[in-house]
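Feature request, filed as a ticket because there's no other form

It would be nice if the structure record came with a short human-readable summary line next to the tokens. Right now we just get the raw output. Example of a typical job, pasted below so the devs can see what we mean:
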Amino acid sequence: MIVNGIYWAPGAPRLITIPDAKTLLRPEDPASASWLAHSVGCPQLPHRLLAICDISADPGGSIEFMKECTTINHPFELYDAEQHVDYER
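Raw output as currently delivered:
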């Protein structure tokens, strides 16, 4: 999980770009991660990114694919990184 609350100015580097999201949100192939250490009771690494909390209120900013600010009534945005599609809330 990533919690983003940083100020972002247009032209500044992004924390997560759309191509980054495709990589971070894609399920990892367990065979390609066989070299990573594994402990009983812990999920096998590398973990897949499952959630981003963006409280920075900068749509299209530091987390490029976020198109709308979330609200108390609608606290989540569902995003398909592979298709670059937001799902209706």
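Something like this underneath would help us a lot:
Helices lie at 18-24.
Strands lie at 2-4, 52-54, 78-80, 85-87.
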